[in-house]
Write a structure and sequence with these properties.
This protein is α/β, with parallel strands linked by helices. It is built from eight helices and 16 strands. It is about 35% helix and about 25% strand. The strands form four sheets. Strands 5-10-2-1-13-15-16-14 form an eight-stranded mixed sheet, with helices on both faces. A four-stranded mixed sheet has the order 9-6-11-12, covered by helices on one side. It has a two-stranded antiparallel ribbon with strand order 3-4. The chain binds adenosine-5'-diphosphate (ADP).
Length: about 280
């Protein structure tokens, strides 16, 4: 990795993630001249806020096994409070406090992340797992990244801190998966590395046994390994890794964001390292 290469770091929003440690480590690397872009989630804090506000979270599972948040308008507003407010500004405050000129944006700002809204979502509901069409779901995926905006920020020494929602092609706010949005951003900016930091050490062979870490996976094995070992949300992380590698990112590492120096450890190869075929 040369000094000018860009690393995209996705920090999850699960329970136990230590944002303080992530920000301190980012700041230490920025001081040494490393360039970063941060993408973050906020799922756990959103669940807490939604419950406190009397609009508890609901999740749906697609027939292919992907679980996602059911995002009606009220849920989207609560997400905005937490993702774009509490978490995004908390990260910016910590980085600014450590001398890093961070700027927090969501995918709506400057049309940063754009893509199609899914008009309907097929989901399995009820105990018998019958499939149903859901229409009031404000979700979609990122297809286009406003790279000129990101380049102008990066070139002027800012560290972008990005989060959902994104902007649909029709101009609506849509919930998007943070791992896949980070992958799309890493591809668009030709990043050399994508680090996906979460509340597990990486991909585990026998989840939740943390001693069963799979240290390395080749890109061509990802699909089979995922089918065999991933459950729930881990499937989306592996899909994001596949998308990043297919788009030319050299390496994706799934690392742990629960303790000190999470970036340093992940950059040093702790976690599950997924190497692109072309490197
Ligand atoms: P984040 O909010 O940090 O992006 P997610 O909750 O989306 O993280 O995904 C990480 C979760 O994936 C872990 O907390 C764990 O519960 C789950 N998981 C499922 N299967 C595995 C596995 N084989 N190895 C590690 N984690 C797994």
């Amino acid at each position: 990795m040369n000094g000018n290469s860009l690393v995209v770091v996705k920090v999850g929003g699960g329970e136990g993630i230590d944002l303080e440690a992530v920000c301190a480590d980012v700041a230490a690397w920025v001081t040494k001249g490393r360039r970063f872009l941060l993408v973050h989630g906020g799922s756990h804090a959103t669940n807490e806020a939604a419950t406190a506000l009397g609009h508890p979270p609901r999740f749906i599972t697609s027939p292919s096994g992907f679980t996602s948040r059911l995002t009606d308008r009220r849920t989207l507003e609560i997400m905005e409070m937490v993702y774009c407010g509490q978490i995004n500004k908390g990260i910016v405050e910590r980085l600014q406090g450590a001398g890093v000129n961070a700027i927090g944006l969501c995918g709506l700002d400057g049309g940063l992340w754009r893509g199609p809204r899914k008009q309907t979502v097929r989901a399995l509901v009820g105990e018998n797992g019958r499939s149903r069409l859901i229409r009031d779901n404000l979700t979609g995926k990122v297809e286009a990244v406003n790279i000129s905006l990101l380049h102008s920020l990066l070139d002027n020494g800012y560290l972008p801190v990005l989060t959902a929602p994104a902007l649909s092609y029709r101009g609506e706010a849509i919930n998007v998966d943070g791992d896949r949005a980070a992958a799309a951003t890493a591809v668009a900016l030709a990043a050399t590395h994508l680090l996906i930091l979460s509340n597990v050490p990486g991909l585990l062979r026998h989840f939740p046994d943390e001693t069963s870490l799979i240290p390395a996976v080749a890109a061509h094995e990802l699909e089979t390994v995922g089918q065999r070992y991933a459950q729930g949300r881990m499937h989306i992380k592996l899909l994001a890794a596949r998308e990043a590698l297919a788009g030319g990112v050299g390496q994706v590492t799934l690392g742990d964001a629960r303790s000190r120096q999470p970036l340093t450890r992940t950059l040093a190869g702790q976690g599950t390292v997924i190497q692109g075929e072309r490197v």
